[in-house]
Write a structure and sequence with these properties.
The protein is about 25% helix and about 25% strand. The protein has about 80 residues and is an alpha+beta fold. The chain has a single domain, classed as 3-Layer(aba) Sandwich (Glutaredoxin). A 4-stranded mixed β-sheet has the order 2-1-4-5, with helices on one face. A two-stranded antiparallel sheet has the order 3-6. Strand 4 and strand 5 form a beta hairpin. It is globular. The N and C termini lie far apart (about 30 Å). The model has no long low-confidence stretch (mean pLDDT about 95).
């Protein structure tokens, strides 16, 4: 990613923490690209290359990878990805 690339946000349907981060970033006009694993399961390999956790949301801000939002996260199992 170059400095002009948007932040990547890996999400899934049914994840309240994913919904919260997308809403927060949208409200603050943060430039981001949402990758919804429920709708784009082929992106799971990309996520796994970035982190080993099985929790969402995953936020990739250039070289920094964060799991969760405001202290909350959902397991892959909770959102039907496992």
């Amino acid at each position: 990613m170059s400095p002009v690339d948007p932040v990547l946000v890996f999400t899934a349907d049914g994840c309240p923490h994913c919904r919260a981060v997308v809403g927060d970033f949208s409200a603050r006009n943060v430039r981001f690209r949402e990758i919804n694993l429920s709708r784009e399961p082929e992106q799971m390999a990309r996520l796994r290359s970035l982190c080993w956790e099985h929790r969402l949301p995953v936020i990739v801000d250039h070289e920094r990878v964060s799991i969760g939002f405001r202290g909350g996260s959902s397991s892959f199992g909770e959102v039907g990805l496992e």
